[in-house]
């Protein structure tokens, strides 16, 4: 089927190409460096550092220096213009918000949160290359499939409450990519097993590959 949608910017295209965004959220960002190394070594190339994690801005700057050039690092839970500016200044390549209307005028791709068809369409009309469907855990992939019927040009990034076993269903329902937080990261950012994290990362990537095969 021919895709009539507008071309994506390089950052958004990289996220769609990877199929998933790993969301790093913890009380503090001290463990994000080790977690990011494991994720990138496993093959995950898009990371979102949530600003609710203490030290998140410094972590974004540190990960930009630490990780390979092909890794896309963004900021999540961006709620104010000051947050957005600080994240971009630290090197965030994209910004994600759980709500609409907080990301206007930024110099990097912005993915606002939406839940209803009206919100999704508003975000699309505002120029969002990807629209974060949030919280997706209370919905089913069939909801996304129904949304894409009347809104086929909107690229949607379901996030929030998506488990590893759900990845294939969401992608096959039409998700451009999925955002994975706790079910992927687990307790690895607070001293948990990095070996178990690597296994979960492989499982997530295998699910993306299966969905797109």
From TrEMBL:
Keyword Lyase attached: yes
Top-level taxonomic group: Bacteria
One function term, GO molecular function aspect: lyase activity
InterPro entries: Aldlse_KDPG_KHG, Aldolase_TIM
Keyword Repeat in record: no
Pathways involved: Carbohydrate acid metabolism
UniProt KW keywords: Carbohydrate metabolism, Lyase
Pfam family, one: Aldolase
Assembly information from the UniProt record: Homotrimer.
Entry similarity comment: Belongs to the KHG/KDPG aldolase family.
Protein name: 2-dehydro-3-deoxyphosphogluconate aldolase/(4S)-4-hydroxy-2-oxoglutarate aldolase
């Amino acid at each position: 089927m021919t895709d009539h949608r507008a071309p994506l910017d390089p950052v958004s295209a990289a996220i769609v190409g990877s199929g998933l965004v790993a969301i790093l959220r913890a009380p503090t960002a001290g463990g994000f460096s080790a977690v990011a190394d494991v994720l990138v070594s496993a093959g995950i190339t898009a990371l979102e550092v949530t600003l609710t994690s203490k030290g998140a801005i410094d972590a974004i700057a540190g990960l930009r220096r630490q990780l390979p050039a092909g890794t896309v690092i963004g900021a999540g839970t961006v709620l104010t213009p000051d947050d957005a500016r600080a994240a971009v200044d630290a090197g965030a390549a994209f910004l994600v918000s759980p709500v609409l209307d907080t990301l206007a005028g930024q110099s990097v791709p912005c993915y606002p949160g939406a839940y209803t068809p009206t919100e999704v369409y508003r975000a699309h009309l505002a120029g969002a290359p990807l629209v974060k469907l949030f919280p997706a855990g209370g919905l089913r992939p069939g909801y996304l499939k129904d949304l894409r019927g009347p809104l086929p040009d909107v690229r949607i990034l379901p996030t929030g409450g998506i488990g590893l076993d759900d990845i294939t269903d969401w992608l096959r329902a039409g998700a451009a990519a999925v955002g994975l937080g706790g079910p992927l990261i687990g307790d690895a950012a607070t001293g948990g097993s990095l070996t178990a994290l690597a296994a979960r990362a492989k499982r997530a990537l295998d699910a993306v590959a299966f969905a797109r095969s």
